[in-house]
Q: What sequence folds into this?
C-alpha cells in the first residue's frame, strides 16, 4: 500500500494467501472514466465490484458506495483481497443487440502472472466452438484439463487453482475450432 506522498507504507494486519485482514476498515477508491462508460452504454449505477477469494471464487464486494457524480466506487472493508474487478451488474430483458461478439479467436496472458495459487485465463470465441483448455508442465506432460466442452461465442474466463502443484513454469494450451495457441504461466509459492 502507498500513502499519498508516494512513500511505501504497510498497514498492520495478517496475510493469508491473497487476503489481508486489516485491524481497521480500509477504503479503496476506483475511478471509472466516463468514456469507458459511454463506450459500453453503462451508467455508474450499473457497475459493481467483485473480488476473487483464496479459493478462486468471484464474490460481490460488500461495503460498496457509488458516487455517480465523481465516477467513483469506494469499497470499505477490513479484508482485502489480491484481485478486484469492476463489472456491469446483470441487466434484465432479452435484448442481445448490445452484446459484442469477438471478431477472432484470442487467448490472453493469464493474470496475475506469476501467481499463487490462483490465476485467471481469458479467451475469446467468435463463434460456437468445441474448446479444450489444458495445462502442461515444461516436459509436456498434461497436468489438468480446465475446459472440454462446446461454448458459445464471446469472452470466457477460467480460474486455475494450482494449490496442489509445485512452483514452476507451466504451459496452457487452447484448441477451439481451427485455432490453437500456447502461453506460459509461472507459479510461485
A:
Amino acid at each position: 500500500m502507498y500513502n499519498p506522498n508516494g512513500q511505501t507504507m504497510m498497514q498492520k494486519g495478517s496475510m493469508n494467501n491473497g487476503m489481508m485482514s486489516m485491524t481497521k476498515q480500509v477504503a479503496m477508491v476506483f475511478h471509472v472514466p466516463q468514456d469507458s462508460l459511454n463506450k459500453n452504454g453503462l451508467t455508474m449505477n450499473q457497475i459493481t465490484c467483485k473480488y476473487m477469494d483464496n479459493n478462486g471464487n468471484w464474490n460481490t464486494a460488500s461495503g460498496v458506495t457509488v458516487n455517480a457524480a465523481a465516477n467513483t466506487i469506494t469499497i470499505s472493508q477490513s479484508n482485502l483481497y489480491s484481485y478486484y474487478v469492476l463489472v456491469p451488474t446483470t441487466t434484465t430483458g432479452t435484448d442481445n443487440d448490445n452484446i459484442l461478439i469477438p471478431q477472432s479467436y484470442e487467448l490472453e496472458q493469464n493474470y496475475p502472472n506469476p501467481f499463487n495459487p490462483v490465476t485467471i485465463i481469458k479467451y475469446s470465441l467468435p463463434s460456437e466452438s468445441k474448446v479444450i483448455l489444458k495445462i502442461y508442465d515444461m516436459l509436456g506432460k498434461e497436468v489438468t484439463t480446465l475446459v472440454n466442452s462446446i461454448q458459445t461465442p464471446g469472452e470466457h474466463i477460467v480460474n486455475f487453482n494450482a494449490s496442489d502443484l509445485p512452483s514452476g513454469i507451466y504451459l496452457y494450451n487452447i484448441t477451439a475450432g481451427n485455432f490453437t495457441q500456447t502461453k506460459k504461466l509461472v507459479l510461485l509459492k
